[in-house]
Each structure stands twice: as C-alpha cells, then as structure tokens.
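Record passed on underneath.
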Amino acid sequence: MKKNTGITRVLLAFRHSGKGFKFLITQEAAFQQELILAAVLAPLSFVISQNLSELLLLLMSLALVLIVEILNTAIEATVDRVGQEYHELSGLAKDLGSMAVLVSLLFAAGVWITFLWRYGSTAIN
C-alpha cells in the first residue's frame, strides 16, 4: 500500500481533522460546552494578562481542556467500537479518560481563578 507523502499527506490530515472536529461540534455536548467556554474566556485572557507568558498560560489552559476532551472522546469511541458489552477494563478506560478531563478542568479553573483574583484585586486598588 502506497503511503501519502508531502502536501497530499498534509491535505489529508486537514481533511481528517475537519471530520473529527465536525463530529465533536455536532455530537459531543461536553466538547461543545468547553469550546463555548474557551471562546468566551480567550478574549478575556488578553485583558487580564500582564505579559506574554501569562497570556500563553491562560490560553494553553483552555487548549489543554479541549485537547484532553478530544482524547477522551477517542478513547470512548475505540472502546465502543470493540464492543457494547460490559467489561471491567473498558469501564476503567472510560473512567480514566473522564478523570483526565476533570484534572484538566481543575487545572484550568485554578489558573483562571488565580488570574481573575489578581485582576479583581488590582482593579479595586
């Protein structure tokens, strides 16, 4: 089987990524909610950050949540493809994916709360 290379490979990667994104925004409620949250918070990051490092930390915390949600969805799709019958390891895989999403959300919340707290304190003074 001939492997795609060069620009063909890049174009196919974009097409496959687009199909994945379309699935996420039409079928995955959690991703939809997290994407809306990121769209609302991303512009705010330009207001509350004081330098490029802070801006990147705020934006990367949002991106991390989306990336982990994408990976969790991939795990769930793979487990569901293998079979619908219950298996302890299938349940564990889904639970661990869910836990990864929770950890990323808690991290992002911690970052954002810290910056918003500081922004609120400096706005009052």
The mean pLDDT is 94. The chain has one domain: 29-124. The first helix runs from residue 6 to 27. The CA atoms of residues 17 and 23 lie 10 Å apart.
